């Protein structure tokens, strides 16, 4: 189960994801993220507090990145270096497809 915390600062929509992203929620979460990210021209998706992430989540994030690039909405993914998401991005080279940063200040 994943939960979201959403706020907006200086024209940037910031979305923090907590919990797990897997095959049971990746589809619905991806749809909700797409809706939330396109509200402004820039979205920061913070995955630092995700406790579990699998290949379904990676597929969802890749599709989300492609969809927002066509919007056009700038997507910045935050994953602290010690986070589960950062380790998975390093292993899969997902950071070559997405703008992944260790932190982000608006």
Describe this structure in words.
This protein has helices at residues 26-37, 55-70, 84-92, and strands at 2-9, 12-21, 42-53, 74-78, 99-101. The protein has a single domain (2-101), classed as STAS domain (Transcription Regulator spoIIAA, 2-Layer Sandwich). It starts with a strand and ends in a 5-residue tail after the last strand. It has 3 helices and 5 strands. It is an alpha/beta fold and 106 residues long. A hairpin with a 2-residue loop joins strand 1 and strand 2. 35% of the residues lie in helices and 36% in strands. A 5-stranded mixed beta sheet has the order 1-2-3-4-5, sandwiched between helices.
Distance between the termini: 28 Å
If classified by CATH, what would the architecture be?
2-Layer Sandwich
- Give the count of helical stretches: 3
Tell me the overall shape: globular
Structural class, judged by helices and strands? alpha/beta
What's the CATH topology name?
A: Transcription Regulator spoIIAA
User: Roughly how many Å is the radius of gyration?
Assistant: 12 Å
Low-confidence stretches: none
Biggest sheet layout: 5 strands, mixed
| H/E series | EEHEHEHE
Provide the spatial order of strands within the biggest beta sheet.
1-2-3-4-5
CATH homologous superfamily descriptor: STAS domain
* Overall number of structural domains: 1
């Amino acid at each position: 189960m994943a939960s979201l915390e959403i706020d907006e600062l200086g024209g940037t929509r910031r979305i923090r994801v907590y919990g797990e992203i897997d095959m049971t929620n990746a589809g619905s979460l991806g749809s909700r993220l797409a809706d939330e990210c396109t509200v402004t021209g820039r979205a920061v998706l913070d995955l630092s507090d995700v406790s579990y992430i699998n290949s379904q989540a990676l597929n969802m994030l890749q599709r989300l990145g492609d969809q927002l690039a066509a919007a056009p909405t700038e997507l910045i993914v935050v994953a602290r270096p010690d986070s589960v998401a950062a380790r998975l991005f390093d292993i899969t080279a997902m950071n070559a497809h997405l703008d992944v940063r260790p932190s982000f200040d608006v």
